[in-house]
Amino acid sequence: MPRGDLSLTIGYWLVSHKSTLQRWWAILLMAVILFGTLWVVISMSVFVSQDSRVLERTRQAAAALTAYRPVNLGIPKDIDIGDTTVVQRDASRADIVGFIANPNTLWGASQVTYHFSIGPTPTPSATVALNPGEERAVVILNQTVESDVAASLVIDSVTWVRASTGDRGGTFTVSELIWAPTRVAVSGTTVETITMSAILKNTSVYNYYRVDVPIVVRSESGIIAVDELRIDRWNSREEKTVRVSWPYRVSGVKSIEIVPTVSRFDPGNRF
């Protein structure tokens, strides 16, 4: 081997070890190929084993995206519709009550147009208002029905109004709520029912031309009677005494809900 010139020395070593270097290069290349193949196989195995979970997460993400309502961008959530109950007066007449709730705190519904479907038959449309965060009963009385018919509440349209933080609307209190068994004559027949009385007070600063007062009577088994009163010209701080008897059998009363309701979005209802 020549001495004294480093480049000649390296060149001579490469030439003299050419076969050894080729062998090691082939071994290194084969190792890289094997490692790459093994990595692909392992990755595919992991992916296939998690495929069902990946699909499930994809479905969940799609469902969440579909249900998302960007409230912060000014789109209110839909009104929630609760259960509907048919209270039979007799074999052919009934009172019906449904419940609606506004899940929005920044939006109110100045007008909710709705109807009931009693079996296959729709009732005429009616309207109510629904304040931010409010739940209310919707009542329709003395309807012609078949025995044991089912009913549902259907919302046709909603007019949304951005709520003002300065206007809290009407506030009312209910006190001295009592009920007692009584008897009433209905079509020549004596019916065992109840008489209810309560004192309602308008504690807001507004006088109202009209206030709707839904009444829901419950027993251990559910709703057994409903009614709706209308109080006209109700002054601020004024008390009203209400009394109601039902013309059908009512017994086993557990509670009575009385919720005077006015719209925050109807200044024409104030005087």
Q: Can you give a write-up of this model?
A:
The protein is of the alpha+beta class. The protein has helices at 6-16, 18-49, 51-67, and strands spanning 80-88, 93-101, 107-118, 121-122, 126-130, 135-144, 151-162, 172-186, 189-202, 208-219, 222-234, 239-245, 253-258. It folds into three domains: 6-67; 71-163, Immunoglobulins (Immunoglobulin-like), CATH 2.60.40.10; 167-271, Immunoglobulin-like. The radius of gyration is 38 Å and the shape is elongated.
Topology:
Blueprint (H helix, E strand, L loop, with lengths): L5 H11 L1 H32 L1 H17 L12 E9 L4 E9 L5 E12 L2 E2 L3 E5 L4 E10 L6 E12 L9 E15 L2 E14 L5 E12 L2 E13 L4 E7 L7 E6 L13
Antiparallel strand pairs: 1-2, 2-6, 3-4, 3-5, 3-7, 8-9, 9-12, 10-11, 10-13
Structural class category? alpha+beta
Helices and strands, in order, run as: HHHEEEEEEEEEEEEE
Can you tell me the overall shape? elongated
Largest sheet: 4 strands, antiparallel
What is the average of the pLDDT values?
Answer: 89
| Total domains | 3
Q: Compute the number of strand runs.
A: 13
Q: What is the percent of helical residues?
A: 10-25%
Number of helices: 3
Q: Give the C-alpha Rg.
A: 38 Å
Low-pLDDT stretches are none
Termini separation: 118 Å
Fraction in beta strands: over 45%
